[in-house]
Amino acid sequence: MSPDRNRLHMAIQKSGRLSDQSRQLLKDAGLRLAQGGKNNLSARAENFPLDLMFVRDDDIPTFVADGVCELGVVGQNVLEEYTLGLTEPRIEEVARLGFGKCSLKIAAPDSLTYFNLKMLAGQRIATSYPRLLARFLDNNGIEADIVTMRGAVELAPRLGIARFICDLVSTGATLEANGLAPVADVFDSEAVLVRTLKPVDGPHSEKVAALLTRIDGVIATAESKYIVLNAPEEALPAITEILPGAEAPTVVPLIGRPGHVAVQAVCQESVFWETLEKLKRAGASAILVMPIEKMMM
Ligand code: PRP
Ligand code: ZN
To answer: Which residues face 265 on adjacent strands?
Structure first.
């Protein structure tokens, strides 16, 4: 592969838990991706100098660390496993993306009725995450045998390869289907945007910055709401206090209603029914909560 150096390159998962939402993130950031067949290994953004590379998630940190791709979307589980094997930093996390939430867990046959961590001592544990598991065992002062497998870790207990496994759990369906149950949490993970620590040249780094600004906007917008409400002036301090993650709200007088104002604010956190009820109790009325389509801070 000889990448076109006039364009940015981003590595995303070819197929798997993160691939659909990784593409959606880029679409939400306004990128129009050229349609390619399912088997295409790359796709070009038609309205931004970016090429997507579709690779195995385990290969994403390597691509980004080597600078073959300036950016990537990967699970923190894969990123941390890779980073633990480095002697110096080569890749950095730039944003949490809020999807692909899962957790690396130790699991045991579901016939096990009692568990505590000490029971792992001297046992064989099969995993695709040997470094994360080793760190966990170390932090808990446990010595056990780690059996590294590239996949199908859930089969290990049935095959007699290991008594325990340590694998990624999202819905838990895979464990259940294999007669296993989670017994301990090793590492919580979600999808993150990563960038290379290799120097990126001038014009390129501007493109990276522009793309990161857009992606930040998408992340912020996902949670943010625009709130409009009416309130008596003396209720303003209490109301501003309740508005979740709002900085300086705009306050405008209401014509014909002396002592009353309209308040407008961007809330950068979720707005729940409880929040609206509190606002109402504090004196607010005519409360509107609206989605925000685009945002650039
Ligand atoms: C993980 C893990 C399980 C599955 C668990 O694989 O290895 O197979 O997800 O999901 P569930 O709890 O919803 O059943 P991953 O997505 O990392 O794929 P990969 O191992 O092929 O990279
Ligand atoms: Zn994988």
So the answer is: 227
135 lines ligand 1 (CB under 6 A): no
Ligand of minimum distance to the alpha carbon of 58: 2
Taking the C-alpha atoms of residue 297 and residue 290, their distance in angstroms, rounded to an integer, is 18
Is 247 within a domain?
Answer: yes
Q: Which two tokens stand for residue 7?
A: 């364009």
Residue 229 Cβ contacting ligand 1 at under 6 Å: no
Instruction: Note whether residue 44 is domain-resident.
Output: yes
* Structure-token pair, residue 16: 């798997």
Global pTM? 0.84
User: How many Å apart are CA 120 and CA 141, to the nearest integer?
Assistant: 11
Cβ–ligand 1 contact at 103 (below 6 Å): no
Domain match, 277 and 172 both? no
How far apart are alpha carbons 43 and 73 in whole angstroms? 15
Computed from CA positions of residues 47, 50, 53, 54, in that sequence, does the dihedral angle turn out positive or negative?
negative
Write out the chain's pLDDT in tens, 297 residues: 555 678 999 999 999 999 999 999 999 999 999 876 667 899 999 999 999 999 999 999 999 999 999 999 999 999 999 999 999 999 999 999 999 999 999 999 999 999 999 999 999 999 999 999 999 999 999 999 999 999 999 999 999 999 999 999 999 999 999 999 999 999 999 999 999 999 988 888 899 999 999 999 998 888 788 999 999 999 999 999 998 877 789 999 999 999 999 999 998 777 889 999 999 999 999 999 998 888 887
| 90 in the same domain as 210 | yes
C-alpha span between 272 and 226 (Å, rounded): 13
Domain CATH code at residue 260: 3.30.70.120
- The edge-to-edge listing of strands for the beta sheet with 250-253 is 250-253, 260-267, 225-232, 285-291
β-strand pairing of 91-96 with 164-169: unpaired
Report yes or no on 297 lying in a domain.
no
Together in a domain, 198 and 88:
yes
